[in-house]
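The records we work with from here on pair a chain with its fold. These numbers are not coordinates but entries in a learned vocabulary of local backbone shapes. To see the layout at work, look at the sequence and tokens printed below:
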Amino acid sequence: MRLLDAYDVDVAGRHAVVIGRSPILGKPVAMLLLARDATVTICHSKTVGLAEIVRTADIVVAAVGKPRFVQGDWIKPGAVVIDAGYNEGNVGDVDFDAAKHAGLITPVPGGVGPTTIAVLLEQTVDAASRELNA
């Protein structure tokens, strides 16, 4: 959500497809998007017709754990693509050919991972500050 906010991506009313159903990333990000008034579809690697579903998405979050699983021609022109995957060989869950179609796309490495670390550090500093001032 921080990445979307940093680039002024308003998710309200937009169709978001989350590919991945893990309790650590897929389900929580789906709920965060839903809380911001996105219409959310949760899919996974076994979803029938996955490419067609992804082609309808304004926002795609890939957290499926399979290298280059999401193909570039699945991406709707101008869609925002968040690749939360990190696989052997420094590749994400999205084939970077998707960049040709996407309006915005996170790189792997260098996108979601460093942002996650920065947010965790920020929260740690905030918690320590609250503890010291308590």
Summary: The domain at 2-133 is CATH 3.40.50.720 (Rossmann fold). The chain has a mean pLDDT of 95. The chain has four helices and five strands. The longest strand covers residues 15-19.
